[in-house]
Amino acid sequence: MKRLGIYVQVPFCQTKCTYCNFHTGVVAKERFRPYVAAVCREIREHRELVRAAGVTWGTGPLQESREVNECSHGGTARGEGAASRSSGQASGENKETECAVDTVYFGGGTPSLLETRQLEDILEAIRETSGTNGSRSVEVEGGFAPPWGPESNRDSVRPRREEGGPPDSHHNELANRSGENQAVFQEVTLEADPETVEEEKAAAWVRAGINRVSFGVQSFSDKELKAAGRMHRRTDIYRAVPILREAGIRNISFDLIAGLPHQTKDSWKQSLAQLISLEPEHVSVYLLEVDEGSRLGQALLTGSGQYSAGAVPSEDEMAEFYEMARAALGAAGYRHYEISNWAKPGFASKHNLKYWRREPYLGFGAGAHSFSGRQRWANAHDAAAYVRAIESGRLPLEQLETVTGEQALDEELFLGLRQLDGIDVGRIEREYGVTLGGRLEPLAAAGLLEREGDVVRLAEEKLSVSNEVFVELMK
Ligand code: SF4
Predict the structure, then answer these.
(1) Could you tell me if residue 86 is inside a domain?
(2) For residue range 380-404, what is the model confidence (pLDDT) as tens digits?
(3) Are residues 310 and 410 in the same domain?
(4) Residues with CB under 6 A from ligand 1
(5) 320, 336, 356 - which closes a domain
(6) What are the start-end ranges of the H helices in 19-156?
(7) Residue 55: which of 402, 368, 355 has the closest Cα?
(8) What is the pLDDT of residues 231-273, one digit of tens each?
(9) Which of 16, 315, 342, 375 lies at 20 to 30 Å from 261 by C-alpha?
């Protein structure tokens, strides 16, 4: 059974962090209500909205079959008709298979700013349109159609636990606490800022079905947090974690950023030690991104010195911080499973794994991205324009792209190698009808990749320069 992830974008924050290059805005709380109403409407009317916007369903995932082979040999993109013909080994007959929504991810922005009632409304819209107690959709001609629309099968399907996933007892516990409609999705993540966590709110999140909280911790140094324009301080992190644990959240993720202004080897070591002492189940470590999209990035690029740009660590220091994180987290029992992500056994992010595995997901809200296995599309980023469009019965599509065979192959390599388990070269060569030796061997000879039978992965000591490896690989 194919699994479907749902992403909900909440593009609102309390302030704008200096390093932030996301499309988020600081708005009055009154703006939340129409936005949530628009998201709920987009979810409920999704099938019609995307169809009217030009997205097509059921054209067949490129991972499958001859189409990809032909693409690779021919080196050209396949049109929709061609896709239908080739995947249509079914010859026009709809091949129906179930496609269950098993993960929901509220990202942002700061989704924890929403009132719990608003989060519940969105979850309710997802449940309603995808079946009361779980969900399934219909797969058509090797692709998939979302669980929206008249042909949707509303039977209840309880998501099955993945091997190695968190124990079912946790889901049962949540279900018992929160009533029949809860815990129907395997993983429901809420991104939160530590200062937004309150006891009542946390308890209500659990009742709503949220079972994973991803904290934008970024640092345990108040000096670094202040310089970065963060609202929270170290004490907020220590206050928030017990509140979440008490409420019943058994899956907490912390984000850290290597490269914040004023960060030193010593302060980074302290941040890692304090993070580990709080025992989150999951950790993400990101390197500071320097681009024009953030105020700090602009200051660095123009050499203005604003936003403490002069106190940003060097690239070499950031690479060293990354290696320190690898060593400390590994020693503390975290498994490094993706370039930027570590997890205790069974706690790898089920939702984010879909992105790296090229599994389908639907995104709702301003700027949200979707992937059907065949096409990628994105809503417009401007929240006000998004709300206006949805209110007038239209999806403000900003991008719509049919993934070509070559693009799909590049994605397999690029996204696959982000995972430390690496890629199965034999599978990819079979599915895409290509030989990868010419692309991979020079990188292996240069010590950037390691090969073990059919499995190729990034060399461990090159993880901190993975971008350079990917640039070489895509040449
Ligand atoms: S909280 Fe996150 S999304 Fe909001 S401004 Fe800061 S970095 Fe950007």
Answers:
(1) no
(2) 999 999 999 999 999 999 999 999 9
(3) no
(4) 13, 16-17, 20, 22, 24, 108-110, 193, 216
(5) 356
(6) 32-44, 46-52, 65-74, 80-87, 116-130
(7) 402
(8) 999 999 999 999 999 999 999 999 999 999 999 999 999 999 9
(9) 342
